[in-house]
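User: I've been trying to design a sequence by hand for this structure and keep getting stuck. Would you show me what you'd pick, starting by listing the structure so we're on the same page?

Assistant: Good idea, let's start from the same input. This is the structure you sent:
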């Protein structure tokens, strides 16, 4: 009888371990796919060239340096941010990762950065504090078998700082926004005349989300939550054209709302 009890107890222990191991294996096998793309809200420069070394992710929002995982695709590379306008974006990462909590995305920049202004090239200095990487809080739960597309909007106009006193020294102080098509959409359109640089903006609560038109007059405003908005088009003041608003623009999460061409007068 004691032997039978011992065999039964051993069987229960082995069964428990097998179930536990299977549960762990299932959890480890749950995968989500994430892509990270870079786009730009341009400034008044000929080129803004930024060296991107890597893209990293972390499952928590902790500020320590532990737990970061590299997912960069084809990096490092130097990117002219002004090529990424009018809805154009560049893929930085495309990776399968364990499902579960995603706390942060980190964009790691190098020091090989330059700016071209009126045909002249200047170094674009990166403060030492930025070289450790730009940490973007996302705090999202990744569901198994879902794809999450993260878009990093690099606001050039706010990111490039010229030192006072006419020194001609340019510093890079990156201003970034990160959005995902799971909880936001985009508004895309074109402005005539295309030769006039125009700022397209939408007010989202207390935040103004904006993008400049490119050389073809095309703009795309990313990271707009679902809802109905008013679009404001502000042309270069030197053009003499008036500011124009377009009301009743509906945005759907995960979709791009395409507008008919808009003529400024």
């Amino acid at each position: 009888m004691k032997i039978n009890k011992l065999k039964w107890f051993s069987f229960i222990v082995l069964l428990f371990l097998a179930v536990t191991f299977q549960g762990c294996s299932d959890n480890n096998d749950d995968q989500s796919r994430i892509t990270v793309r870079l786009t730009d809200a341009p400034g008044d420069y000929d080129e803004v060239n930024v060296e991107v070394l890597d893209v990293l992710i972390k499952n928590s929002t902790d500020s320590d340096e532990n737990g970061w995982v590299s997912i960069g695709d084809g990096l490092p590379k130097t990117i002219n941010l002004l090529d990424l306008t009018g809805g154009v974006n560049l893929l930085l990462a495309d990776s399968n990762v364990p499902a579960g909590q995603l706390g942060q995305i980190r964009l790691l920049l190098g020091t090989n950065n330059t700016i071209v202004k009126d045909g002249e090239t200047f170094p674009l200095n990166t403060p030492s504090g930025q070289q450790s990487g730009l940490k973007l809080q996302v705090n999202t739960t990744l569901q198994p078998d879902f794809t999450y597309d993260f878009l990093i909007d690099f606001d050039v106009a706010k990111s490039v700082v010229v030192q006072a006193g006419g020194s001609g020294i340019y510093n890079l102080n990156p201003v970034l926004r990160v959005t995902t098509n799971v909880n936001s959409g985009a508004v895309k359109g074109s402005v005539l005349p295309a030769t006039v640089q125009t700022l397209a903006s939408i007010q989202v609560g207390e935040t103004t989300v904006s993008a400049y038109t490119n050389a073809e007059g095309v703009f795309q405003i990313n990271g707009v939550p679902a809802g109905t908005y008013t679009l404001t088009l502000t042309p270069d003041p030197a053009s003499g054209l008036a500011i124009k608003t377009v009301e009743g623009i509906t945005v759907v999460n995960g979709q791009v709302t395409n507008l008919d061409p808009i003529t400024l007068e």
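That's my pick for every position. To get oriented when you compare it with your attempt: The CA atoms of residues 150 and 180 lie 4 Å apart. Residues 183-265 form a domain with the Immunoglobulin-like fold (CATH 2.60.40.1120).
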